[in-house]
């Protein structure tokens, strides 16, 4: 049975158009891009064209796109790469609602002697800008913020934060892994210095992503070896995946307006039905609208065990997540839900529903019906 | 087209591609997800691990999937060095390692570790007595490659493993990237603690590697975040690549003996052909090298000119290790085996495969004759 998939923020399938573009590079065009003969040179050109295509979408320069193995590597690279290259300053500012690849990198840097400040967020997940303004100083090395939160979908005011960083001469990194398929980026006019992106969140392959590094920003290498990626990231380039990611991002950009509209409408439908039928329900994060990822509906039910609910949903072939997939092995409520202070009687009754390309109105009906039945028969 | 650069990268086998495509299409769930669709991916991932363990005498080893062999070696070396820095800061490697190992050690040296880069003999192998003398009380890691990627020399890994048996606290890492599927790799028998493999050198996909390590060995993770891969390598696992890697490995090991003997015959033919010309000096030692690699230096002909002449006739081989092709300096490996700058600069490497045919070697022979005449 084909599962009814409501976990697009966790991962997505590779779409056919992407796949078709990858296939030649998985078959005949297998040359190593570092080889000096035409078979290799051709593939080097292919990946540089991909760099250009991606740069064009982002209004970036192609020399600012560095391919890597995915979002976690990009986040590790951004944090550690900046910290180890610019050793004079030791202060880093981030938030309490980052993805673990950022949080754990920050904790690692703390053990290395860095001073990391974790910004509070309000009950919708927006950072406390006043607090940031108070803390930031000329001693601050970098600020790292998740642009759109993976659990509750809160979209931060990156422009405002970036401008403040710029005023203080502070390096600004954003984790745009969830934002990328839903928000058009114009890095030329966005005051950011680094940005992490992962392909499997927008119907590209797993195991590929990139780090945008603004020209002029120096970053220490994370992986040492060959001279690939302008001597910044060693290892034979994954040509088919780079091609696939590029195509996936182009399609995401082409279809973004329509996707956002559709997903937001479906999210609105889902929430209205549930709200009309269940009294003790709470939407975590901002209202459905421009400040929230369009396909994200993070819900808490009073007096319900979220993991039991998701277990039952799962048995019925409906895939949802309880927390972020990366930490769903742990039993504690997620750090994000704690940071936005979800009330005690609600916090354990949380599920994350995320919509995507193949979500239909029927799927929403099925999901709502199941949850309503479950709630009233609990 | 005649491809003689299988050391650089290989085409993906049809069966491997099929496994990849099937997994991609049907089992694309996140293996960290708790629902059935995710659990299926996780099961596939662990089946791939199990299969790989059994293939190289590594039942008591753990397998971590990485984005490349370069990443796997970085993780092994830095992971061991950082984890054990309180116990000791002496590390041993050789001067002929792949850049992913060599530059990682250079980086650790910059950070305050003491690194001994062992010299090699003319045949590209280390001297075991020198190794014994180099080992100190505070040595925590020995790392060396099994088969050299430039000249094909085979390191005496089993003998090194024997020596290290008497030094329980030293971890032994081996880059088996160019050995796997070509000569026998038996981790437990060789007393290897950690081993790096690559998929795209064994007819698998690029962007896919793995690190084997003996269970119980502690590593400091390099990419942190989620709890994937035993908390040692954060990031959503690329399950289709992992499944494809296990398949590629199984197939590469299936016909290993037949392939070895077949390629050995091709190697002898190549050597006969190449030794007819005074302009060509064969650098790969005939006795202690993998038959899959023949490295030569050119006298009076530039490596690049030579490669271009063949390229025009649709024959491909490399002038230097592909990973560092852009760097125009004499080969570190060839200098290590005693060649002068000129010979170490004008290096060409032919690498063979079970896919190489005798007919291709015939054509190569004719073209070589023409090219030498043309360039003289």
Which geometry of chain B do the CA atoms define?
A: globular
Distance between the termini of chain B: 25 Å
- Can you give the mean pLDDT of chain A? 95
> In whole angstroms, how far apart are the ends of chain A?
26 Å
Characterize the quaternary organization of these chains.
heterodimer
Largest sheet of chain B: 7 strands, mixed
- Are there runs of chain B of 5+ residues with pLDDT below 50, and where? 321-325
Provide the CATH top-level class of the largest domain in chain A: Alpha Beta
Order of H and E elements of chain B: EHHEHEHEHEHEEEHHHEEHEHHEH
Biggest chain-to-chain interface with counts: A-B, 75 and 71 residues
Please outline the major beta sheet of chain A: 7 strands, mixed
Rg of chain A from C-alpha positions? 21 Å
How would you characterize the overall build of this protein?
The complex is a heterodimer of chains A (378) and B (376). Chain A has helices at residues 16-26, 38-58, 71-85, 100-111, 129-135, 158-168, 228-231, 239-277, 306-315, 335-339, 344-347, 361-376; strands spanning 4-5, 65-68, 91-95, 115-119, 140-146, 171-175, 194-198, 209-213, 281-284, 296-301, 318-319, 350-354. Chain A has 378 residues and is an alpha/beta fold. Chain A folds into 2 domains: 4-11 and 256-376, Aspartate Aminotransferase, domain 1 (Alpha-Beta Complex); 16-251, Aspartate Aminotransferase, domain 2. In chain A, strands 2-8-7-6-5-3-4 form a 7-stranded mixed β-sheet, sandwiched between helices. A 3-stranded antiparallel β-sheet of chain A has the order 9-10-12. Chain B is globular and about 65 Å long. The two termini of chain B are 25 Å apart. Chains A and B meet through helix 2, helix 3, helix 4, helix 8 and helix 9 of A and helix 1, helix 2, helix 3, helix 4 and helix 8 of B.
């Amino acid at each position: 049975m084909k599962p009814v998939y409501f976990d697009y923020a966790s991962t997505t399938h590779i779409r056919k158009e992407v796949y078709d573009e990858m296939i030649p590079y998985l078959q005949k065009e297998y040359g190593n891009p570092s080889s000096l003969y035409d078979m290799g040179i051709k593939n080097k050109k292919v990946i540089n064209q991909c760099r250009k295509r991606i740069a064009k979408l982002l209004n970036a320069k192609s020399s600012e796109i560095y391919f890597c193995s995915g979002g976690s590597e990009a986040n590790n690279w951004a944090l550690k790469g900046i910290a180890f290259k610019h050793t004079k300053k030791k202060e880093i500012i981030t938030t309490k609602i980052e993805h673990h690849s950022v949080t754990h990198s920050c904790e690692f840097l703390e053990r290395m002697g860095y001073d990391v400040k974790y910004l509070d967020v309000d009950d919708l997940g927006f950072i406390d800008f006043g607090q940031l303004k108070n803390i930031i100083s000329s001693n601050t090395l970098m600020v790292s913020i998740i642009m759109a939160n993976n659990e509750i979908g809160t979209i931060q005011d990156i422009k405002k934060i970036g401008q403040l960083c710029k005023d203080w001469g502070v390096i600004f990194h954003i984790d745009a892994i969830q934002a990328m398929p839903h928000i058009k980026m114009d890095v030329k006019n966005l005051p950011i210095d680094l940005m992490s992106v992962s392909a499997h969140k927008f119907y590209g392959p797993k195991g590929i992503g990139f780090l945008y590094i603004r020209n002029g920003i120096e970053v220490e290498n994370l992986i040492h070896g060959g001279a690939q990626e302008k001597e910044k990231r060693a290892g034979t380039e994954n040509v088919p995946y780079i091609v696939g990611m590029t195509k996936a991002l182009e399609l995401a950009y082409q279809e973004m307006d329509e996707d956002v509209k559709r997903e937001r409408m479906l999210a609105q439908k889902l929430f209205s039905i549930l709200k009309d039928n269940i009294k003790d329900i709470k939407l975590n994060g901002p209202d459905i609208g421009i400040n929230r990822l369009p396909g994200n509906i993070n819900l808490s039910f009073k007096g319900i065990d979220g993991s039991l609910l998701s277990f039952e949903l799962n048995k019925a072939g409906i895939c949802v997540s309880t927390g972020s997939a990366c930490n769903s092995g742990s039993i504690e409520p997620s750090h994000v839900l704690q940071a936005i202070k979800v009330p005690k009687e609600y916090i354990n009754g949380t599920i994350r529903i995320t919509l995507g390309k193949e979500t239909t109105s029927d799927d929403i009906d099925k999901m709502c019906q199941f949850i309503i039945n479950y709630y009233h028969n609990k | 087209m005649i491809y003689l650069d299988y050391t650089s990268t290989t085409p993906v086998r049809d069966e491997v591609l099929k496994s990849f495509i099937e997994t991609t299409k049907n089992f694309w769930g996140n293996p960290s997800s708790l629902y059935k669709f995710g659990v299926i991916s996780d099961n596939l991932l662990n089946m791939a691990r199990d299969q790989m363990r059994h293939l190289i005498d590594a039942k008591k080893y753990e397998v971590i999937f990485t984005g490349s062999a370069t990443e796997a070696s970085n993780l092994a070396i830095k992971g061991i060095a950082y984890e054990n820095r309180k116990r000791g800061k002496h590390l041993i490697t050789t001067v002929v390692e792949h850049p992913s190992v060599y530059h990682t050690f250079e980086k650790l040296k910059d950070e305050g570790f003491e690194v001994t880069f062992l010299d090699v003999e003319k045949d590209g192998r280390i001297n075991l007595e020198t190794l014994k003398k180099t080992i100190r009380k505070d040595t925590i890691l020995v790392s060396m490659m099994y088969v050299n990627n430039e000249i094909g020399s085979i390191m005496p890994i089993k003998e090194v493993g024997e020596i290290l048996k008497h030094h329980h606290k030293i971890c032994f890492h081996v880059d088996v990237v160019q050995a796997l599927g070509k000569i026998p790799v038996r981790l437990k028998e060789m007393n290897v603690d950690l081993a790096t493999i690559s998929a795209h050198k064994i007819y698998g996909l690029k962007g896919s590697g793995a690190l084997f390590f003996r269970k119980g060995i502690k590593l400091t993770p390099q990419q942190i975040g989620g709890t994937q891969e035993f908390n040692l390598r954060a990031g959503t696992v690329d399950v289709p690549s992992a499944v494809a890697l296990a398949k590629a490995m199984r197939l590469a090991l299936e016909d290993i003996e037949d392939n070895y003997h077949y390629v050995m015959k091709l190697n002898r033919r190549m050597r006969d052909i190449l030794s007819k010309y005074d302009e060509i000096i064969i650098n790969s030692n005939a006795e202690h090298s993998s038959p899959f690699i023949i490295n030569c230096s050119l006298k009076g002909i530039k490596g690049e000119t030579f490669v271009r002449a063949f390229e025009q006739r649709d024959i491909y081989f490399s002038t230097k290790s592909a990973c560092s092709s852009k760097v125009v300096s004499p080969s570190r490996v060839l200098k290590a085996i005693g060649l002068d700058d000129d010979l170490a600069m004008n290096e060409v490497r032919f690498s063979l495969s079970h896919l190489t045919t005798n007919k291709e070697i015939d054509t190569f022979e004719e073209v070589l004759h023409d090219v030498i005449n043309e360039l003289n």
